Structures are given as structure tokens and as C-alpha cells.
Amino acid sequence: MTATATPSHSALSELAEASFAALDVREHIQPWHFGPVGAGLGSIPVRTPITGELIGSLGADHFGALVDYGAAIEAAHRVFPQWRDVPAPARGHVVRRLGELLKEHKDALGRLVTLEAGKIAAEALGEVQEMIDVCEFAVGLSRQLYGKTIASERPGHALRESWHPLGVVGVISAFNFPVAVWAWNTALALVCGDTVVWKPSELTPLTAVACHGLLRKALADTGHDPEAHQLILGKREAGEALVDDPRVALVSATGSTRMGREVGPRVAARFGRSLLELGGNNAVIVAPSADLDLALRGIVFAAAGTAGQRCTTLRRLIVHESVVDELLPRLVAAYQGLRVGNPLEEGVLVGPLIHQGAYEGMAAALEQAQAEGGKVLVGGERVGEGDSYYVSPAVVRMPAQTGVVANETFAPILYVLAYADLDEAIALNNAVPQGLSSAIFTNDVREAERFVSAAGSDCGIANVNIGTSGAEIGGAFGGEKETGGGRESGSDSWKAYMRRSTATVNYSTELPLAQGVSFG
Ligand code: NAD
User: Fold this and answer.
1) Domain residue ranges in the chain
2) Is the CB of 239 under 6 A from ligand 1?
3) Is residue 176 in contact with ligand 1, taking CB distance under 6 Å?
4) Contacts of 275 (CB under 8 A, 6+ apart)
5) Residues annotated catalytic, as ranges
6) At what angle do helices 106-117 and 121-141 cross, to 10 degrees?
7) Where does the pLDDT of residue 194 fall: very low under 50, low under 70, confident under 90, or very high at 90 and above?
8) What is the CATH number of domain 282-477?
9) pTM to 2 decimals?
10) May I ask the CATH architecture of the domain 73-278+488-499?
């Protein structure tokens, strides 16, 4: 593992200011403005995990904008009837325009993602590309919000179901996908006829203001009211405002299982809807017939990429006992070649952890793993010092799936377990509280089909011969059990953003009752 030098603080401030200015959204982000540290009343600090320092601040024209979450929800609620009445294909034009703006500003927005979330450039650009992809998907969807026509049991009657806009959708998002998760939700919600209030992570407010500005510009460019999208910046209290407000029809919340455990019951208590995308603890099974070259590449990207800070990060490697001794030395060698450091620098594959707390969580997990009989094969050390937290990704051989392995530690730790037969491997895959992503590397079609069958992986995502992370937008994304059960992005996930209405129309002159009931 090699480390690179971190850049100077002022250089990063300048890069943030230049990247933000390149988006050209200043007039669309009111009341917010972005400037040097300390600018503006009640300003929100913008920090980079690259150095751990402040790279600017977000101020508001009036202090109230920072705390009056109700006003944002009120505005989204007020605009909803007029947005609902815009024909869906015309709503698609707004999302098409958003996609165009994202293409135009891909590099600048990608740089902001690197600065605020610490992702290497390739992954940051990939995240913006994911936004562009979902916009394209949503534009097509805007002409395909189909309902069903059902055969009525009564003569002269028509039975059908239609999908209607829900109302205000509240989007709460996590730091590690600061822009893509917003786009998954917002592109779909908008074509479905909903207005949106977004509460981004408090760790990534600048990318949020950037996206807010781009969407408001898209709304203005297509002749629609920019108030259809609202942004509230703040910590969990801002999220709680969405959770508890009966004007918010759907709360789509992405983050830790801890957060979802609080949000789910509170939204349910007011009979609101929630869509939960929570923590994962994802496994790969390496079977005896696996192509080990392919498996190795898939494992390293899934486990060490994004510095282990993806919900779909590979955290458990379940290897058949006949290949474990061949695979592990190759895995250790691949880890030793990973370059850790400044994510702006070419060749770096592992950027920083988001903050000190993430590093402390990793160190505590490694300590616990060793206390539970684990042996660290490679990595696990802090690289560098100061206010930023870089680590060498770790591989830990475990004697069994003990307590620490069942938890999601949001850092690059890969626990390795050995198995004797496929039943045991599938049981290990499923024996954790989370159920997001999973994969098997095998050339045996029986094993592959078994893994993706009902008797196989219990996760929302079950892959064969690819890793656990890096899903395409075309499929429905989400997971079971403590991952929350929500589905976002492709397939028919759009249905979560609409309400279903079943209509029976009697065009006859009789009034026959269903089930042949006779009444007087
Ligand atoms: P987090 O739970 O700390 O915060 C997520 C968001 O929830 C933030 O905007 C935060 O302010 C808000 N929040 C926290 N408590 C809240 C409450 N009680 N009410 C309302 N809002 C509240 O998560 P994080 O550290 O930003 O992100 C990492 C976590 O997110 C990991 O567990 C990761 O697996 C998960 N994640 C899941 C997915 C998915 O699609 N399943 C995607 C990305 C991240």
C-alpha cells in the first residue's frame, strides 16, 4: 500500500469555489450563497475529508432560511396541485433538461463530490453518470405510467386502476452518495407528479445546493415553478421535520439502520408512507469452480473501493475451503498494491474516510475482531496524520461469523470465512440482520441458479460473477430485513411515488351488485 501527499487547504478552497462557480447556478439557489469561510449570517460550514479542513461556507440571505423547515414544506405543498396537473410527458421535459445540465457540468459536479465526500475522481464521475442515467430512465417513464384494465364480473361495467401523484415527497439522504440517491428519488418523484423537499446529509451540503440549483434552473428553463423543489439544510432535526409533517406523503430515507429505526415508526404513526434504504452487510461466496482472476478483481473493487463507504460494500468473503489458501495470498498482494491518498490525484484508488468518527469505528471493529479470534492479514492502519483520516483497507481472517462480523462498520474491513458446502455458505450469507447485496463467483450453473433462487440469497440484490456494489439504474435497488425493504431507481420502483386508484365505471342502466348480492 502506498500513500500520497495531501494538498494544501487553500488550493482545495479555490477548487471548490471554481467548481461551484462553473455550475452557474448562483441565481437559482436563493436564499443560499457559497463563499469563503465565515461568509454570511448563520453560515453552514463546508468541510472536505481530503484534509479535514473547512473549504468554504454556505450562508443564507436571512437567518430564518436556516431553520424554517416548515416554510419549505409549505411551499412544496402549495405548488403540488399545479405540478400534479402538468401532463406527465411534460413533467419529463424538466427531467430531460436536468439530465442535459448534468451532462454539461459533469466534471464540476464530480469534483464537488470528490471534495465533499472524498471519492476518487472515477467514482465521483460515475456517481454523476448515474444521475444522468436515471434522468434518461425517468424521461421514458414519463410516458409509461401505466395502469391496468381488469375484466369486470358485472355486465356494462369497466374496472381499471390508475396511478396518481402522491403529494410532497421528502428525501433524506446519506453522505456517501451525496448526489445520486437524490437523483434516483427526485427524477422519479417529479415525473410521477410529486413535489420534493430534500434534506441532504449535513456532511455534504455544498453538492446539495449545487444539485438544487441545477434542478431549479431546469424547472425555470422549461417554464415551471422552481418552488416544486425545496432544500432544507440541517442536521437530523431537519430530517425530523419531514418525518413528522403530515403534509409529507412519502418520506424516502437513505442512511443507517439506526436512522431508519427512528424514521419508520414515526412516519407510520401518522399513517404516512416511508421508503427505507438502510445499512448493508454484503457477502461474496467464492465457490470451488470460480474464476479466481475475475473473483479477485470483483472482490477488491467491492471491498476497498470508495474506502469501504458504500451501502453495497463487500464486508464478508465466504470462500470454499478448497480455494481459500490459493485466493488469500493473492488478495493480500492486491491489497498491498492499492494506492491510498488524495482522491484528486490520478492513480489513487482509496480516498479518505469521511471523518474521525469513521476511523474510530474502524479501529474499534478491528480490535473487537481480534478479541473474537480474528487475524488481520493486511491493512487496518491509519495512513498519515492531522485532521484527515486515511486508512489502509483491511482483510481479517475470522474463525466464525462472530458478533463484529454481523455489524455494518462503515469502513474498509473485509472479514474472510471458509465454508465446506454450498448450504453452509448460503446460510452464512443470510445469517446477518441486513439484507442488501450479495454475490457468488462460480462456473457451476446449478450453484449460480440456486444462489439467486428463493432458497438462495435472502438479499434484495443477488449477483453472479460480479461483486456486490456498482448496481445499474435499470433494476430496482434496495434490500430486505434491516436494510428496510425499500426499492428505488429502475423497474417499477416508481409505484412508491404514486397512489393507486381503482375505478369501477357503470355504463349500463342496471345496478348489479358484486358477488351477486341482492339488496331489497
Ligand atoms: P446517517 O443515518 O447518519 O444519516 C443519513 C441521513 O439521515 C442524514 O441526512 C441525517 O441527517 C439523517 N438523519 C439521521 N437521524 C435522523 C432522524 N432521527 N430523523 C430524520 N433524519 C435523520 O447515515 P450516513 O452516515 O450519512 O450514511 C451511511 C449509512 O447509510 C450506512 O449505514 C449506509 O449503509 C447507508 N446507506 C444506505 C444506502 C441504501 O441504499 N441502502 C445508500 C447509501 C447509504
Assistant:
1) 29-66, 73-278+488-499, 282-477
2) yes
3) yes
4) 250, 251, 252, 253, 484, 486, 487, 488, 496
5) 277
6) 120
7) very high
8) 3.40.309.10
9) 0.97
10) 3-Layer(aba) Sandwich (3.40)
